[in-house]
Amino acid sequence: MRTEVITVRTGGAPVVVDITREAADFVASERDGLLNVFVPHATAGLAIIETGAGSDDDLLTAIDDLLPAEDKWRHRHGSRGHGRDHVLPAWIPPYATLPVINGRIALGTWQSICLVDPNGDNQVRQVRFSFVAG
């Protein structure tokens, strides 16, 4: 198994960051196997979605609709509504496992690997790529 950690700057507002290129670079020298992507944070997740056509913004809107940033959350440290950020990984998990075939991630035509970070309190995230040969 081979592993690498990258740093992603997410800024101070909720964001969806496409990390497909970084993942593709990580597996480019491999053959067949599995890529595991993991975000070791309690308030971020990973989604396989289309980006650039509004779906990333739609995802953030859906998160706000499902998990509003209100003061109703029991987990109360950080900015207003931060408790919802700690619930997010139950719906958008902090991991994804993807097939790699001949050094290429086997994504669908419009699919991208995205870091989903609704938490503006943490502006830098780590993402761990691990490759297991098949």
Automatic annotation (TrEMBL):
PANTHER family: UNCHARACTERIZED PROTEIN YJBQ-RELATED, UPF0047 PROTEIN C4A8.02C
Name assigned to this protein: Secondary thiamine-phosphate synthase enzyme
Cross-referenced SUPFAM superfamilies: YjbQ-like (SSF111038)
Family per similarity comment: Belongs to the UPF0047 family.
Species annotation: Actinoplanes utahensis
Pfam families according to UniProt: YjbQ (PF01894)
